[in-house]
Amino acid sequence: MTVRVGYVGVHIATYYAEEHKQIDRARTGLAKLADELGFELIARDGGVMNAEQATAVARELADEHLDLLIVQTAACCMADALLPFADLGLRLGIWATPEPRLGGDIQLNSLVTANIFTSTLRRYYRVPKPFKWFYGHVEEDSFRRRLQVTIDALKGCQALAESRVAWIGGLAPGFENLRFDQRDLHDRLHGARVMPRELRELVDIGREFTDSEAKSVASDMVAAARAVNVPDEFIERNARLYLALRTVCREDNANAVALQDWPQMQDIDNISPLLALCWLAERDGIPSAHEGDVLGTLTMRMLAAVAGRKSTIMDIAVIDPDRDTALLWHCGGSPHSLADDNGVTYEFHSTLGRKQANGPWGAVVDLTLAPGECTIAYVSDDARSLLNFRAEVFAEPEFSGFDGDRGWMRKFRHAGAEVTARDLLDTVLTTGQEHHYGFVHGDISEELSELSEWMSWREIKPLQYRDALQHVNRQQPNNKEM
User: Fold this and answer.
1) Structurally, how many domains does the chain consist of?
2) For 62, which of 18, 410, 411, 464 is 20 to 30 Å away at the CA?
3) What are the start-end ranges of the H helices in 274-420?
4) What's the predicted TM-score (pTM) here?
5) Which of 145, 153, 458 has the alpha carbon at shortest distance from 305?
């Protein structure tokens, strides 16, 4: 999965792009950034000077499967040289550079040309073309950072488009808020697929593995935990389920899983499969969501691709307005590597079977999230909208949080602006969020905002808390089109 970036420099002969080596400088610098930022560069030799040349080059680029085409206004050029590239329907970057001197005759006129180009993309076409502007020399930190945000955002777009979700057992009963339309996801995510499987299939596949195969995986699981507080049989059952999940992913070419982890699983085998989901995410890098949450597992896949780290989904179980904090929590389904220095233990599920004669059941991963910057997000409304907050995980000395996977959050921000815990409460309840929230370490909120723009999603804006009823139409259509 590699982001492919094209580059073309445009100019006319009466300016000094060649004398100032604008195109050579750009190609060399972008090639270096390609190695640093992790993208593939497809750079055009020489410059484009008119519409005829642009048409020929655009024809060559049409088969390159580009994720982004950067058009540099190396010097002054007419907008008719832009139109063939815009007509390709690609995501565009319009790049201007500073003048080499600030007196005498103008050498490049790059910024004015970029302004003409961006205005053309907005005003010439009935449906405006998507673009992002860049300004500065390729070696400058500000240019590098702006391009890095784009590359990381495009990695998320690509991960969504290439998602193949094994949806096993359907939704957990009663979670009507997690329903989705498979056709909508396929169209809006530009190719993502959801592949249903029966829960019984998974259990039957797991039973085909030998005791020695299950015990070998169970041994690896035990070695990864600080303590194991459940009987061996529950570890081995999860080991079998892990092997079955891995088999399903290989058979279906799936790279993500959404599993109905209750109640049918307990009816079949008296087990909580959360450890198996954790192990699949931790060991194989396959995001795995509980409760059959397909949008949740797509969110996890998106976050992992943008951040380059493991991700999870959790609930907002507590909001404490007086402390301006919130608790992210779930029953124990997060990858081991998200834990703080105390590591993980394996415990019985804290709710399943606790009032039944044959309960409790296990095993789940008990952990506290490592402290530091983080991002909380969710792809919602059948991939029409995105919730996106920056926050900070911190160690709460007074309240440990509930058993399972958990972490206390504070210092919420959206688009650089402070969001209080009351604002967060009003936002998630008033806009009717799906009750799951993707989590990843690191602040990638800017990257996700850009991803939302490229995907033509509506980014959900935080509400300012009020005592009065607020009405927000979450289904408001987004008129942007790719």
Assistant:
1) 2
2) 18
3) 274-284, 294-307
4) 0.95
5) 153
Same domain, 96 and 191: no
Residue 66 has pLDDT above 90, yes or no: yes
What are the tens digits of pLDDT across the range 343-372?
999 999 998 878 888 778 889 999 999 999
297-334 tens-digit pLDDT: 999 999 999 999 999 999 999 999 999 999 999 999 99
**Phi-psi bin for 475: left (phi > 0), alpha (psi -120 to 50), beta?**
alpha
Tell me the β-bridge partners of 376: 389, 439
Beta-ladder partners of 368: 406
Peptide bond preceding 363 in cis form (omega within 30 of 0)? yes
91 and 198 share one domain: no
pLDDT of 266 above 90: no
C-beta separation of 47 from 77 below 8 A: no
Instruction: Give the Cα separation of 31 and 124 in Å (integer).
Output: 32
Kindly report the CATH number assigned to the domain that includes residue 177: 3.40.275.10
CB distance 347 to 403 below 8 Å: yes
Domain limits for position 18 = 3-139
Q: Give the per-residue pLDDT at 474.
A: 55
Same domain, residue pair 45 and 85: yes
Q: Are residues 58 and 123 in the same domain?
A: yes
97 and 166 in a common domain: no
Q: pLDDT digits over 423-436, tens only?
A: 999 999 999 999 99
Distance CA 363, CA 289 (A): 16
Q: With the CA atoms of 259, 261, 262 and 266 taken in that order, what torsion angle do they form, in degrees rounded to the nearest 10? A: 120
Report in angstroms the alpha-carbon separations of 480 from 58, 387, 452.
Answer: 24, 18, 11
CATH of the domain at 99: 3.40.50.10940
In contact, 269 and 203? CB cutoff 8 Å: yes
Angle between helical axes of 294-307 and 141-161 (0-180°, round to 10): 150
- Is the domain of 339 the same as that of 207? yes
Q: Is residue 171 part of a domain?
A: yes
Domain boundary among 139, 173, 194: 139
67 and 208 fall within a common domain: no
